[in-house]
Glyco_18 domain-containing protein (Rhodnius prolixus), 440 residues
Amino acid sequence: PYLSAAIISFPTFPLNHCNQEGLVVAGSNKKTVLCYISSWAVYRRSQGQFTISDVDVNLCTHLVYAFLGINETTNTVVSRDSWADYVTNGRGFGQLKDLVKLKDEAPNLKVLISVGGWSEGSEKFSNMAASTVKRIAFVESVFQFLRRNQLDGVDICWMFPTDRGGIAEDKRNFATLLKELRTRLNEDNRILTVLMTGKRYIVDPGYDVRTISQSVDYINVMSYDFNGPWERKTGVNAPLISENEFNVEFSIDYLIKKGATPSKILVGIPTFGHSFTMKNVPDNGNYLKVPSDNGYLSQWTREKGIIGYNEVCYELSTTSGWKEMWDDASSTPYAVNHKKFVSYDNQRSILEKVSFAMDLDLAGIMTWSIDTDDFRGDCAVPGDPTPAFPLLRAINNGIAEALAARSKNKTTPDKKPNSVIRVDPLPIIVLALAALMPVF
């Protein structure tokens, strides 16, 4: 039934949203597609190695290079890996400079750095933000770093205020830090974004959401990692909806309720999933909430419990025994192979999340991170003219289709002028064979 419905329902994108090949270009519809790049992806082996030359500048409005760190002595921004970030005496990858060079190819592209991350911890931020003198040093170092490296802005990723060695005052101090950054960055018209979660137990003690929203250009919501192998049972990484509050819809709604401006919110969509090793294969065919141990080590990301979409689709297409299934309760796929269980996002689940974001007229989509999309097109259908970045293309196609449907709805006489319709994502999947995966 899905196939017959899709065949007669090809979506039509306005020509000004497409390039000469008829492919949707990020930003052509005034929505934001912010793409994180993990700096360490350059060290991955074989087909997993991602370099700046792999970036498709047509698919992102903003590129965010993660992560830089904080020098605890000087309270200034520093490289956490100079070999990855710079070239010194002819040695090193020089990714920061290569990122900025992409603007020669795409002048409207915005290139940012992200400061922080999980490995950088919380205490460095907490200590710096608690002192006026230290905040001034940090803010000035950010300003000068952006200017010196010709970058468009900075993203702050404090994981998480009041947690992991933080203090109760972190909530107030974080909001103050962002205010001061905003004031200084305005002098050069630089961009300020923040990477946040929408989980209530982190939001309430750690974020003055309304004040933060007033200071930043975008709130990049980590609407994933809701479940993982740390729970010792199989679960969904990024459910759109669920029986509890650990899902995308609740996170976004909660941040808005706490004062986030919808036109600044970017819904986070992961290009990675979580792997689990089930203790026993269930006899009843119900693979969710099954007792499990730590996930297995994937071949390119090399992190137990973390698996890139490029690894998922490669395993599904090259290894026997995998079964790919769809969970209606969360609107996400999962795959199993004996005791292996993987939760991830594919084109179908992404299109549903994009439709949700566009229904709320949010700013757009953030994705972590493009280096684990199928950026080489290894899983594409033979003959596909646009094989690379199927998930990122699904994001852009989904935005264009949702906006086109909304525009059509507004101009139809028998519809309410401001009503919004939820787009059925299945026709869109048929639209762009570039984003189409074989069904296993």
About this structure: The two ends are 18 Å apart (CA to CA). The first helix runs from residue 2 to 7. The domain at 2-272+346-434 is CATH 3.20.20.80 (TIM Barrel). Confidence is low (pLDDT under 50) at residues 1-15, 415-440.
